[in-house]
Design goal:
The chain is of the alpha/beta class and 533 residues long. 40% of the residues lie in helices and 12% in strands.
């Protein structure tokens, strides 16, 4: 059979055993690689019949730059470069490549100047928002297909019930298992309509961890019964409904397997996921370059063999594909190789034999993002009467922002005549004004979405913000990760509005809320330490 999309013959009967093993590997492809690096990957694909590739921005991005020491160079033409590279890599392949990417909130997770949608935590804040989440999944799927991406390694179905989680947090729909299930299902269904494969992650659940598995091995010391009650619930229910793939995270679960992390544990992959939970689709590893597991294996190809032996089908971000292929060929049975190959080939048939309408232009995400803002905005008022007083007063229009255009404060100035003051750059005259003012509207744009290093705030900066909250009547509009609330030093009478994103559409809807034209419909999708009883 001929694959019309990329011009390959798709006949599995022609593959040798060595070629079948090559199909189990998914090395990383970097959009901003040098020509030499591109040619090296082309050679790997051509000579070793690689089955899939996963795209990342650059070798300085988070995928390899775990400590954040390398400077990321932005490329305004990344999207065009991505499409060019996909064409080249497909031409190098004898059999069509599955092209994958982490596009949890859209292509913008990896590529500049592409449509971006809200983080999962924002979608989790919407009250009964499955229809809109379906639309998000569908639009992301259409963007992926237009770019040449077949497989979105999403959604995250981890239940984020640990506020200290350094790596999941905002990528999860929340801390309620049923909410996570329903929202994940809507996202998956939307992507499926667009013809894009999914991969639910990070099995058996990365939510209740305080360690970043890029850097070390997180430990989840829970019994199987406890896991079934919570962490495994969305995985099990989604498996029943049908998913393309399950991604196994790098986790230590000593009550299940006291010797091996989940990546190389036959107890977790084969016995639990495959047999007990009845999953018959593709099991894909989380990136094998991550330090949680990569540091354990000094022999090249050893990690790939161990993961495959434990029951893994697709080896994502294998850094030693050639050695891994040789190791599997030298150790695994023909039957075991064929099992994984058949599962992966089934995904290729699903992708390359499906007729889909052509999408000639990228759509504009603004309208959908505006609707998402309207349904997710969340009020957390400790003293509503103070909110009314602030709005009716000659309030001071303050902000803390270092990265995006502050539309919200600018519009407050235009419509209320209150000059916008950025606390990061305020000169002495403004400081005197702040000192003598009682009522403040404070727009906060945290410098980072991850909790590491106080969400990017410097300690002295954070102290200034906390001092204002204690001394003044403050109405806070937070354009960012709600977990940042826990570092602000709020009291029981504090008033804060969660906007979750700093997109222009979210800022504009925040202004409408301030003016009383929009009712807050959202709810906090996670429990914060600040609001614990």
């Amino acid at each position: 059979m001929l694959d019309k999309a990329v011009g390959h013959t798709l006949d599995k009967t022609t593959l040798t055993l060595r070629q079948k093993v090559g199909q189990l590997f998914m090395p990383a492809a970097f959009i901003n690689d040098t020509e030499e690096e591109v040619q090296n990957l082309e050679k790997l694909i051509r000579d070793h019949h690689i089955g899939a590739i996963c795209f990342f921005h650059s070798r300085a991005s988070a995928a390899t730059n775990f400590e954040g020491k390398k400077k990321i160079v932005h490329n305004e033409k990344s999207y065009d470069r991505l499409k060019q590279l996909i064409t080249r890599y497909q031409k190098a392949a004898k059999f069509p490549l599955l092209v994958a990417m982490d596009a949890e909130w859209g292509l913008a997770m990896r590529i500049e100047n592409t449509p971006q949608y809200p983080y999962a935590i924002t979608l989790g804040a919407m009250d009964d928002g499955e229809d809109l989440i379906y639309s998000v999944g569908y639009q992301i799927g259409k963007d992926c297909r237009q770019a040449g991406i077949h497989w979105n390694l999403a959604p995250v179905v981890d239940i984020n019930n640990n506020p200290e989680n350094p790596v999941i947090g905002y990528r999860s729909f929340g801390d309620d298992k049923k909410s996570v299930l329903h929202r994940s299902k809507a996202y998956i269904d939307g992507m499926g309509r667009a013809g894009v494969l999914n991969a639910i992650k990070h099995f058996p659940g990365h939510g209740d961890t305080a360690m970043d598995s890029h850097l070390g091995l997180p430990v989840i010391n829970k019994s199987l019964e406890e896991l079934k009650e919570n962490e495994l619930f969305p995985f099990q229910e989604l498996i029943k409904k049908g998913v393309d793939a399950v991604m196994v995270g790098h986790l230590s679960l000593p009550q299940l397997d006291s010797h091996e992390p989940s990546t190389t544990s036959s107890i977790i992959i084969t016995d639990l996921l495959r047999k007990t939970m009845g999953f018959g689709g593709v099991i894909i590893s989380d990136a094998l370059n991550m330090h949680a597991v990569s540091k354990k294996y000094t022999e090249q190809g050893g990690l790939e063999l161990a993961a495959f032996t434990a029951g893994m089908d697709m080896l994502c971000f294998s850094e030693h594909a050639v050695e891994g292929i040789e190791s599997i060929l030298g150790s695994a049975s023909k039957e075991r190789i064929n099992e994984s190959f058949e599962r992966i080939w089934h995904l290729k048939e699903k992708i390359f034999f499906r007729e889909l309408p052509e999408e000639s232009v990228q759509h504009d995400p603004k309208n959908l993002n505006r609707q998402l803002a309207q349904h997710s905005l969340t009020e957390l008022y400790g003293n509503p009467s103070d909110v009314k007083k602030i709005k009716e007063s000659n309030f001071l229009n303050l902000s803390w922002n270092a990265k995006v255009e502050n539309i919200f404060s600018k519009r407050l100035h235009e419509e209320y005549g209150m000059e916008a003051i950025d606390l990061m750059t305020a000169h002495d005259a403004f400081k005197d004004k702040i000192a003598t003012s009682k009522n403040l509207v404070l727009a906060l744009f945290p410098p980072a979405v991850k909790p590491k290093n106080l969400f990017g705030f410097e300690a002295e900066q954070l102290k200034r913000i906390k001092d204002l909250i204690v001394a003044k009547n403050v109405l806070i509009y937070l354009f960012g990760n709600p977990y940042a609330i826990d570092i602000l030093g709020l009291g029981p009478t504090s008033n804060i509005v969660l906007i979750y994103q700093d997109f222009p559409e979210f800022q504009e809807e925040a202004l409408r809320h301030f003016k009383g034209l929009l009712t807050a419909k959202g709810r906090l999708p996670v429990q914060l330490k600040t609001f614990k009883a």
